[in-house]
UniProtKB/TrEMBL annotation:
This is PAP2 superfamily protein. The keyword rRNA processing does not apply. Residues 1-22 form the signal peptide. Gene3D superfamilies: 1.10.606.20. It comes from the Bacteria. It comes from Actinorhabdospora filicis. Keywords: Signal. InterPro entries: PAP2/HPO_sf, TAT_signal, V-haloperoxidase. The keyword Signal applies.
């Protein structure tokens, strides 16, 4: 059976089986006695599991998300019965999270028992448990040795001699380059890490280079006299982990969808698959160009950034490639606008409410400049690269099934 994917139908097309395509609405899969949304239940369990006991490497956590939810999507395709699909989802995610985050095994075991106890005791339920477990084990096997473990992501790295435009460890910790090994990891769908590598950053002394550094100097300095309070608030809001900041964004898309359970499960899987491949592309670009950070470029002036600079090259911005990929996936599959959703910032403790997927991207571009840790060129090219990886992920999603 051959189906050509098209934008918002990509998730249905990606399933590539009559079983999955026949399930067109959430209502049809909610016919069991349970009124609990199993997808949201296990989404929240994935969030808490990874937040409380996951890996310190963000891409490793994205990998766990991708494997767990892709295994669940694959398992659900075998049958259409509601009990089967809910049991398959819970079993697959439980199996992957238990294997990847063993410290949470007891909590996950109890959660699986709770989910299964709600489902009618029919043969489909038991087959769903088996299917979920089998797909989880198979996918963990497929992804073994993919280079996304913390040690492979962060090998020893020597920046080499200092020179104009060349990245060097940054104050105050002067930590060696981080995430340099991610570029060598095995992607889910990217043909190569450099498949969408952008052109070089603006040349030293060019008009754009001078303008970039002047903007960061004026608006991103620790003692800036021109940065407004609103700009400082935006910088602090987006300063934390992209993965943590985007958990409620993806949850809003999941909660707002009335599509089938397998469709919604695949939405989460493709989101994180795109983000794994995006982070591989980020590492490739950063360590190919090895471009210095503003704090190094402006070192001779006594300038200091508003926020501490992360320990890897400037070009391109990891935060913005994450935003670009997330925006690309959600816009293509869910639509440009959505019901209001709220994001809590771990770095500021404040909340912001949005009604689309693009505004967080725009804020991220500005935020990294106003934090003093990226040039605008690095931010804007990060958005572009993230969107390119997202489009490729959706175009090639059929290969995952």
């Amino acid at each position: 059976m051959s189906i050509k994917p098209t934008r918002r139908n990509l998730l249905t097309a990606a399933a590539l089986t009559p079983v999955a395509i026949a399930a067109g609405s959430l209502t049809a899969e909610s016919a069991s006695a349970s009124t609990v949304d199993t997808a949201l239940e296990w989404y929240d369990l994935t969030v808490t599991t990874i937040t409380e006991a996951g890996s310190p490497a963000q891409v490793t956590n994205s990998r766990t998300w991708a494997i767990a939810w892709l295994a669940a999507a694959r398992a659900q395709q075998r049958e259409t019965a509601p009990e089967f699909r809910q049991a398959a989802l819970a079993s697959a995610i439980h199996s992957v999270l238990s294997a990847q985050v063993p410290a949470r095994a007891t909590v996950l075991d109890a959660a699986l028992t709770t989910t299964l106890s709600r489902l009618r005791n029919r043969p489909g339920k038991h087959r769903g448990v088996t299917a979920g477990r089998e797909e989880a084990q198979a996918l963990l096997g497929e992804r073994a040795g993919d280079g996304l473990d913390p040690a492979s992501v962060n090998p020893p790295y020597d920046a080499g001699p200092a020179a104009p435009g060349v990245w060097q460890p940054t104050p105050p910790s002067y930590t060696p380059g981080q995430q340099s090994g991610t570029r060598f990891a095995r992607p889910f769908l990217l043909p190569t890490a450099d498949a969408f590598r952008p052109g070089p950053p603006p040349a030293l002394g060019s008009a754009r280079n001078i303008a970039d550094l002047e903007e960061v100097r004026l608006y991103g300095g620790l003692n800036s006299t021109v940065r407004t309070q609103a700009q400082a608030d935006t910088a602090l809001f987006w300063y934390g982990s992209s993965q943590v900041l985007y958990n409620p964004v993806l949850r809003a898309a999941l909660a707002g969808s009335h599509r089938s359970l397998v469709w919604r499960t695949t939405l989460v899987a493709l989101f994180h698959i795109a983000l794994v491949d995006t982070q591989i592309a980020t590492s490739d670009t950063k360590y190919h160009y090895h471009w210095w950070r503003p704090v190094t470029a402006l070192a001779g002036t006594g300038w200091q950034p508003f926020h501490v600079t992360p320990s890897h090259p400037d070009y391109v911005s990891g935060h913005n490639i994450y935003s670009g990929a997330a925006e690309g996936v959600l816009t293509d599959l869910v639509g440009a606008r959505t019901a209001p959703y709220t994001v809590v910032s771990p770095s500021s403790g404040t909340t912001r409410t949005y009604t689309d997927w693009a505004t967080p991207s725009r804020e991220n571009v500005d935020a990294r400049v106003w934090s003093g840790i990226h040039t605008r060129s690095a931010d804007e090219q990060g958005i572009v690269l993230g969107k390119k990886v997202a489009r490729h992920t959706l175009r090639e999603a059929w290969r995952l099934f």
